[in-house]
Amino acid sequence: MEFTIQQFLQMRSTEGAQLLTAQRSASGRMIRSISVMEGPVEDFVRRDELVLTIAAELWGHPKQFLSFTREVRDAGATALAISIRSDKQELPACVLQFCMEQEFPLILLPWERRFSEIIEEAHQCLHRSQLQEIDAYEELRRELFASYLSNGTLSDAAQILSRRESRPFCIADRAGRARGVCQAWRHTLPVGEEVQMETFPLCLRIRSEGQQYGYLLAGAPEDGLERPLQREYLEKYAALPLSLWFDREQTISATRLRLKNDFVRHLAKGEFHSMQEAQEQAELMGFRIDLAYICILGRIHSEEPGGLPDGLSESWDTLLSHLLRIGRAHHRALMTTYQQDMLILYLENPEGSTFGELHRFLDEVEKQFLQVSPGTLWRWGIGKLYPEEGKFHQEYLNARLALELCEQQPGSSRLAYQDTRIHRILSAISENRVVRQVAQELMDRLAEDERVRHLELVSTFRCYLKNNCNVSQTARELHLHRQSLIYRLHRLEEASGLSLESCNDRFLLELCVRISTDFSLGTEE
Questions:
Q1: Which of 169, 216, 266, 280 lies in disulfide reach of 161, CB 3.0 to 4.6 Å?
Q2: Are residues 338 and 316 in contact, defined by beta-carbon separation less than 8 angstroms?
Q3: CA neighbor of 76 nearest in space, from 58, 57, 102, 100
Q4: How far apart are CA 443 and CA 430, in angstroms?
Q5: What dihedral angle (degrees, nearest 10) is formed by the CA atoms of 94, 98, 100, 104?
């Protein structure tokens, strides 16, 4: 699964390359990234990185060359590859001696090999390696889940880990007592006895959703090589399944809820590799993702000046239980979770459903939520009423856009995706270079006039549009004398070179103001 120096030397783009030192460890030296380095090393080299260089400033300066090589090695690089003109350049003997003594891989690349081609092919190899590694850990997680669901023991789980990771494992509880050991340690580390966790080369916390269950302890790898990402992958793919074994009877309900929350979150974020994978996990969770769902996002806000009430985080489970009950009462399947202060809800929406039914559902939800958390209000973003089948991530994005725009509109509590059409059109228009240039030039003129005359022309114009170009209503809202407002509007016309009496000019000005206000007008290159 790992991308090694040996595999690097076998690439098409490195044909003719020579490994001068550390030949025996080439197959076990992992490459996690690749870069080109010519200047001072400082903090620019990452661990397990293969460094490419032509050493432009180092030829003829053996001490500097040796210092550069030492710094690359000390930074944790996996190897140094030097492109060399074989007929004109000779590697300093001190550099070669250092790499031999330190067992640090030194590679010579033919001068005609392009770094860009090497990096491109190496990145492809790294990507394939990463996908293979992820697939292997996904399979590990599935095997752990299968063992748990078939009433396997923690010792069975430790044996699964030991077989797949090629090193012995022990699983301990929070008190440091062994709860499961692999076969290799069955006689030397009895279950139930306290273990000295500091003596293990690898010690990971088994935790999920902020709760710690125990520790995953590992001995030395069979090949003697520690893999930097093993810790990260074990925490990501093994911690959750292992947590299921702890206090099985007391935590089974909470664990299933957590798994469902994670599933809905992954579904919304588009983190499944395929719909088949999502379908398989949905069946385990008891969900039906073959139904028609509408996505709804809700975020809680406080009506009180002190912000959100204390203890709100502990109220989420109660809120969700109310939501599930209301869904059952309306005979609608739903999948829901929360992320920080946002509720993610997929509500079954059969053909023929209306927004009226949806709003009545949300009315009942808000009524129940207020009983749990008084003094709060909810703002909702609603996706398409009839979305495409299986487009869970896209509908999450649609609902999120509606929620974000809803929160920008004072007094608004619900907004549907279909009501974001103007925003989406403006967003598309704002990407056009010519449109952005026209808008930028016009807004620059208005900004300059505002600066010189200390008049708020843009905000005045927005209020003028909001009041349907009614001078009297606009003046009242801005607390201005009618003549003062007329003077501002005249200044706006002079500064912009546009007439508010012309529908085309007024449209152009409104378009530029909306783009400048709602979308970034950064300098174009």
A1: 169
A2: yes
A3: 102
A4: 14
A5: -130
Q: State the Cα–Cα distance between residues 142 and 241, nearest whole angstrom.
A: 9
Q: Smallest Cα–Cα separation from 384: which of 415, 423, 341?
A: 415
C-alpha to C-alpha distance for 345 and 72, rounded to whole angstroms: 50
User: How far are the Cα atoms of 29, 36, 373 from residue 122, in angstroms, in the given order?
Assistant: 15, 13, 54
- CA pair distance 275, 392, nearest whole angstrom: 10
Secondary structure class of 120 (helix, strand, coil): helix
Which one, of 59, 52, 57, lies nearest residue 39 by Cα?
57
197-222 pLDDT, tens digit each: 888 998 998 887 778 888 999 998 88
Structure tokens of 510? 């409104």
Q: Which residues contact 22 (CB under 8 A, 6 or more apart)?
A: 29, 79, 99, 103, 104, 105, 106
Closest CA to 365 of 355, 385, 380: 380
* Strand blocks (E) in 372-431: 376-382, 414-416
* Single-letter code of the amino acid located at 486: I
| Mean of pLDDT over the chain | 85
Tally of CA atoms within 13 A in the half-sphere of 425 that contains its CB: 7
Distances from the Cα of 269 to the Cα of 166, 240, 296, 344, angstroms: 33, 19, 14, 11
Give the angle subtended at the CA of 163 by the CAs of 161 and 168, to the nearest 5°. Answer: 65
- Say if residues 98 and 70 touch (Cβ distance below 8 Å): yes
pLDDT of residue 525: 35
What is the H or E stretch that residue 444 is in?
helix 433-453
Which is nearest to 347 in space by CA: 301, 279, 297, 299? 297
* Distance (Å, whole) CA 505 – CA 382: 35
* pLDDT band at residue 53 under the 50/70/90 scheme: very high
Cβ atoms 365, 377 nearer than 8 A: no
Q: In what helix (H) or strand (E) does residue 334 lie, and over which residues does it extend?
A: strand 334-339
Contact indicator for 499, 505 with CB cutoff of 8 Å: yes
Q: How many CB atoms sit inside 10 A of residue 92's CB? A: 19
CA dist., res. 92 & res. 242, Å (int): 53
Altogether, the residues listed in the chain come to a count of 525
Cα separation values, 2 from 230, 324, 350, 424, 475, Å: 11, 45, 48, 44, 70
Q: List strands edge to edge, sheet with 293-302.
A: 334-339, 342-348, 293-302, 376-382, 414-416
| The pLDDT value given to residue 521 | 55
Q: Is the CB of residue 345 less than 8 Å from the CB of residue 295?
A: yes
Half-sphere exposure of 393 (CA within 13 A, CB side): 11
**pTM attached to this predicted model:** 0.44
